[in-house]
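Q: What changes when zinc ion is included in the input?
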Amino acid sequence: MTQPLTHSARLGIVLSAQANFYRVQLAVGDDDGLPQASLLCTCRALLKKTGQQVMVGDRVWVENLDWADERAVINAIEPRRTQLDRPPVANGDQVLLVFSLDEPALDAHQLSRFLVKAEATGMAVHLCLNKRDLVSHGHQQAWQERLNQWGYHPILISVQADRTFPTLAPILNRGITIISGPSGVGKSSLINALIPATDLRTNRVSGKLRRGRHTTRHVELFELPQGGLLADTPGFNQPEIVCQPGQLGQYFPEIRSRLETGCCQFGDCLHRDEPGCIVRGDWDRYEHYTTILQECLTQQQALQDSADPEAVYKAKVDSAGKIHHEPKLPTKKYRRVSRRRQQQALQDLRYELTGSTESLMNLEEQDWDTP
Ligand code: GDP
Ligand code: ZN
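A: The predicted holo structure follows.
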């Protein structure tokens, strides 16, 4: 819902958010002669009252501009194109997954999990393999060929040896890119190399609120010199995948392409041992698919059990996405939980943990520094 705006309102993008302050970069391309600037903004009370929470990446209208103090007030939020909840970023365009070829060595299972998680956001997924300098040409080529079979075209770089990254530039120079990947692969080094003149902390809301990069609870966008914004996310090693078992196949390009050319005998085929399945087979990641599928099925079962009034244990999902079983406290009366509520619970869980773009807004400040 757009608020009534005065002629002095300016459109900007939220680069960082902390407490009740937002750093807003005014949109480029306005030809009204006013200076481009990044302003420290508060948010109009009415937005909060109407349940609208400003997110990093939001396009917002600001008013009450005070050029001397570089302050303004956010008056309205433009509708979002996409929304991620972990990390909380609005209007993300693509995910850049960064892995290293060595130190730490590339682990196919771990990569697969990150890929599935990235695919689940619904954004375009790009893969970058760093530390090319540490491995032989043959090793690089072998990974390249293997990943092509997975349906990806990795960009191989060495942040240490390369001065420029011409193959990355066309991807990063537009829209908002969310960088993700395990720790130690060179994400911070890459961001520093891409934005040489910028101290990674310069976008921070204020010196007082400044915290260490890797302990920070908030996400922020960094501007690339040639355009485009980068969202840096804290590293985590094994992203937990929570999704409806029937949806998992969509997150594997190999399965998507098989289903484009034909279909399984059963519409709800999970591609395990069903007759007439065209997906099951001797392809590289089939085993990754069945492993992750089993996890999704276990999670679904745990959730259904916890909704089952006869169950003694209930499943609880912690902030890291792990499922714990706790003894159920006696309830007042057994009450049948409707199938709709079970489905809703599953959906909520999926949205919370996969950061689905369809998810409804849930932006309590939360720590997504998953161990
Ligand atoms: P992050 O945890 O993903 O942000 O990784 P960092 O940027 O902190 O890098 C982890 C380590 O890898 C550091 O010691 C970097 O100097 C090193 N590193 C980064 N890029 C390269 C590279 O291209 N080659 C080599 N050999 N080391 C690199
Ligand atoms: Zn099938």
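Observations recorded in class: The pocket of guanosine-5'-diphosphate (ligand 1) is lined by residues 130-131, 133-134, 158-160, 183-189, 235 (CB under 6 Å).
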